[in-house]
Specification:
two-stranded antiparallel ribbon
Length: 509
């Protein structure tokens, strides 16, 4: 009689075990299905919260870990995303699709070296996946290795001709490696008064990541007090990208013939940009170039050396900023220098608009004062009366003295379609001071009259307005129009430029 209750209990336990498994499995499927539904309507925070609760009771569910890693990436939680990808792979290291998705995420986070390592292991194991080839092609494209990227994309499209993403990237690769021609015309007028028009023609061609060559001819025209003068500038150079160390370089050299045609001088430029991680960059630049920014300088053969260094945080989805230093060296060891910094808030996006307010500060100074009297001493004395302002001019370059500018920034971009983009950038001085030079008559110990100099601290209100529009006429033609207004302590100028860029590439059908 005792065996019957025992059999009933045993049967009950077995039934409970057998029928409880589908219940747990069903709960898991329902939860993960709900997570996917939430993500499909962009409710990533809700999906993340649900997964976090689920994983407390199911820490070894690979699919849940995988979904949580993806969701954190879309939320911008990159460290947490990476952590959960690694947890999922620790439980299922042989899951090729999980490995490919992790490589895709690493690529989008800028961790190209780690992503490449995963993709190479798959290839070494005899695994041939189109998704893996596409990710590798994207990395090579960003590394400027366009030839290898093109080969991989052709392989992807050979397997699946309907792969739109691969097709679109291939078009971008072909554009990037195609020869291009740029023609630009610009005009500048300021109240010194100085008028300057420039016609430029540039041509470039990609050969490899280390050899992106270009050449340029520039034809400046200057008009001053009913006089005109032409100049000529020829430059050629090379751009390179060293992907192993994330280093961009540019070097060019040229010859400049001054407006009075009495002298030609060499020009050169060296530029280095190092990328650290996803958003941080540092760059160095040095150049030797003609100086033609003042009325007096156009009639000279003045050149100077310029050196600059900067560090930037460039996150288009969050805060971005830059700090830098510039140093210009003129003949006789005279110099002008500036230090600056700016920061933009995260962008506000709606209906094709992207708006970013910001703040900037700039300090500049010089080691000498080039401000001199416009007229001779005899002319000044013969026309002088008490408290008369003596007119002066900077000769031959501008020399700011303790100039401090605090500005409010506003960047507005509007992209109504893939073919056209409008941009407006404002830099408006909020509180700015400078020590402006002034001239006055003085006498030396012998009683001789001479023109003396001193400084007066003043407030001023600088402003810069930049407007541009880019219009993609066709796959091969881009039109850019630009207008700038600039008000400084030295002058007010207006600039207008129009450029036309033609790409000599043949799209793949």
């Amino acid at each position: 009689m005792r065996t019957k209750p025992l059999l009933i209990i045993t049967f009950f336990i077995i039934s409970l075990v057998l029928f409880s498994k589908p219940s747990v499995s069903q709960h898991s499927n329902d939860t993960l299905s709900l997570v996917k539904d939430l993500r499909s309507v962009n409710k990533y925070e809700d999906a993340s919260s649900l997964l976090k609760k689920y994983l407390k009771n199911n820490p070894s569910d690979v699919n849940a870990l995988w979904l949580f890693a993806q969701t954190n990436f879309w939320l911008g939680n990159f460290n947490e995303s990476d952590e959960y990808y690694k947890k999922a792979l620790a439980l299922d290291p042989g899951n090729d699709f999980l490995n490919i998705d992790y490589a895709r995420t690493l690529t989008n986070m800028g961790e190209w070296e780690k992503a490449t390592s995963i993709l190479k292991k798959l290839k070494a194991g005899g695994k041939d996946y189109s998704d893996a080839d596409f990710i590798m092609a994207k990395i090579l494209y960003w590394e400027n290795d366009f030839n290898r990227s093109e080969d991989l994309l052709n392989n992807v499209l050979w397997k699946d001709g309907s792969n739109t993403e691969a097709y679109n990237l291939l078009q971008e690769v072909l554009k990037a490696k195609a020869p291009w021609l740029k023609v630009k015309a610009s005009a500048l007028h300021d109240n010194q008064p100085l008028d300057n028009q420039i016609l430029s023609i540039e041509y470039g061609r990609f050969y490899s990541p280390l050899a992106n060559l270009y050449i340029g001819f520039y034809f400046p025209f200057y008009a001053i007090d009913r006089k005109s003068a032409n100049a000529l500038w020829f430059q050629t150079g090379i751009k390179s990208f060293f992907s192993d160390i994330d280093l961009h370089t540019q070097a060019d050299a040229g010859v400049f013939e001054y407006p009075d045609n009495s002298k030609a001088d060499w020009t050169a430029n060296i530029y280095l940009k190092k990328v650290f991680g996803r958003y941080f960059t540092a760059d160095l630049k040095a150049d030797h170039s003609p100086y033609l920014n003042t009325l007096i300088s156009v009639d000279t053969t003045l050149s100077n050396y310029n050196f600059s260094a900067s560090a930037a945080w460039d996150d288009n989805s969050s805060v971005s900023g830059k700090a830098g230093y510039l140093y210009s060296l003129f003949p006789k060891n005279k110099y002008v220098y500036a230090a600056y910094g700016w920061i933009y808030s995260p962008p506000i996006k709606f209906s094709g608009f992207e708006i970013k307010p910001g703040y900037s500060v700039n300090y500049s100074n010089s080691g000498n004062n080039t401000f001199r009297a416009l007229n001779s001493l005899d002319e000044i004395i013969s026309n002088y009366y008490y408290d008369q302002y003596i007119s002066g001019i900077y000769d031959p370059y501008f020399t700011p003295k303790d100039q401090l500018i605090n500005s409010g920034l506003l960047s507005v971009n509007y992209t109504p379609s893939n073919l056209i983009k409008f941009g407006l950038n404002l830099n408006i001085g909020i509180y700015s001071t400078v020590k402006n030079p002034y001239l006055y008559l003085n006498t030396d110990s012998t009683g001789q009259i001479y023109v003396d100099k001193s400084y007066s601290k003043e407030k001023f209100y600088p402003a810069t307005v930049n407007f541009f529009t880019n219009y993609q006429i066709s796959d091969k033609m881009l039109l850019r129009i630009q207008y700038d207004y600039q008000k400084t302590n030295f002058y007010i100028n207006n600039y207008f430029g129009i450029s036309y860029i033609l790409s000599f590439w043949n799209g793949k059908e």
